Amino acid sequence: EKGGFEHFMLKEIFEQPTVLQDVMRGRVRIEEGQVHLGGIEDYLDRLKLSSRVIICACGTSWHAGLIGEYLIEEFARIPVEVDYASEFRYRNPVITKDDVVIVISQSGETADTLAALRLAREKGALVMGICNVVGSTIARETLCGIYTHAGPEVGVASTKAFTAQVTVLYLLALTLSKGRTMSRDEIKLYLKDLGKVPQKVASILEHNDLILDIANSYKDARNFLYLGRGYNFPVALEGALKLKEISYIHAEGYPAAEMKHGPIALIDEDMPVIFIATRDNSYAKVLSNIEEVRSRKGKVIAIANEGDEEITRLADHVIYIPAASGPVTPLLSVIPLQLLAYHIATLRGCNVDRPRNLAKSVTVE
Ligand code: F6R
Fold it and tell me: What region holds the SIS domain (predicted)?
C-alpha cells in the first residue's frame, strides 16, 4: 500500500506530479484558455461580484490560504483576508452578505474550520469549501466548493493535499478573473505555466539524494530559520511547520525582510537558514539577506532557480528548481522543503507518518 516507499509521507510527496495532473483533469483546457469548476458553477456570478474574500483554515491549509490571497488579489483584484479559523470565530468578525468565505480543509472535519463556516453562514456570507475528503462534514455544509482530488492522504504531515489546494486556488483565481480582470489570452498564458508544473515537480524529485545529503549535515541542528518573500513567504512558513511536526526540531518561518526586525539576533554558526531565493522581483533583496546571515556565520541552504550561478558563491548548499512564473513558484519551492523535513526526521529516527502528539484530523477545539 506504500507503493514500494518506506513511508506514506514519502509516497505522497512522490505522488505530487500525478496528483497535480488529477487536480486539473477535466477542469482545464489550456489551448482554449478555459477553466471549468463544476462545484461553483451555480454561484459564479455571485462570486465574481463579491466585495471581499475571507479565507479561513488551520495549519498547512492556512498556508495554502495565504498563497490563495496573493493569487486572488493578483489575478482577480478582489481584496482577500486570511484568518486562522480559531481566531476568526472568536473575535466577532465583520461579515456581510457581500462577502465570500472560503474554508480550506484537507480532512473536511477540522472543528475550528467547521465552526468558522457555520458562523459565516449564519451571517449570510456565501460559503465555499476547498476539501480533499469527499462527503466530509465541511464539504456537505458549504453551499458550493471545489474538491482537491489529491486522493487519500495517510501521512499526518500534509504534502500532496497542500499542493493540490494551491492548484485549486490558482484555478479559482483565474475563474474569478475571467471577463473581469483578464482576457482569455492572459488566462491561457497562466494555464500554460500551470500545465508545466507536474513535469517540473517530477524533475525536482530527482534531487532527492542531494537533499538526503544535506539532511545528513544538519540533522543535529536545534533550530532552523526559513525565509522567503512574496509567493515564497507562505512556503517558508510551510517548510518550517513540516520540519517541526515530524523532526521535533524548532523551526520558524518569516518573510525574509522581517529578519532584521528580530530573528537576525538568533544567527550564529549553529543556525541553519533556508532561503527561498528564486529569481523574482525580490531576488536582489533576498541575496543581501543571505550576505547578512553569512557575515554572522550562519549556514545557508538556498532554494534557487536552475542556471543561477551567483548563488553558489553565497550559499553553503543550493537545491535547484526549474524557473517558473511567480504565481506557480510555491508549487515548486515547497517540494525540496517537504523532502528535507522528511529526511531529517527519518535520520533522527522519528516516526514520520505518525508524529507524536498529532492527529490527522483535529476534531476537537
Ligand atoms: C500539517 C497538518 C496540519 C493540518 C491542520 C488542518 O502538516 O497536517 O497543520 O493542515 O490540522 O487540517 P485540515 O486541512 O484537515 O483542516
Answer: 43-182, 214-355
